TrEMBL record:
The keyword Disulfide bond does not apply. This is Heat shock protein, Hsp20 family. The keyword Cell inner membrane does not apply. Keywords: Stress response. Residues 31-142 form the SHSP domain. Pfam families: HSP20. CDD domains: ACD_sHsps-like. Belongs to the small heat shock protein (HSP20) family. Transmembrane segments: none annotated. InterPro entries: A-crystallin/Hsp20_dom, HSP20-like_chaperone, Small_HSP.
Amino acid sequence: MKLVRFNQTEPYFPNTFSGMLDKFFNENMGTPIKHFNPAVDVSEDEKSYEIQLAVPGVKKSDFKVDLTEGKLTISGERKFEEKKEGKNYHSLETQYGSFSRSFYVPEDIHAEDIAAVYEDGVLKVTLPKKEKKVVKAAIEVK
């Protein structure tokens, strides 16, 4: 079974013309956005599923990883610090604000062994799979 992305709280490409204009002016005029969706990579091998979020500049203490009723939610906040003496921003492309990404997880994981590690701007969440028991029996042909 594969991990399935739950839903995004705010789509990257707005579905209305006014939403597109809001996104254009908020991102291109230097106004920090209140919410954003970090890039996510999801992979799987024989032993585990792995989710990687690209969120540089966030403190470890600003993350929250929660598993409730089969839904893994990763949330946090990248704070914008406006009080920089002597700096005038001409362009502000980095996304700031709060984020939340949710995924439905398969039933074949060890929930108590989920691990999250934040290193070099990437949050890596590992969801170990339960070992599959191979049941093998010889059946006698009569």
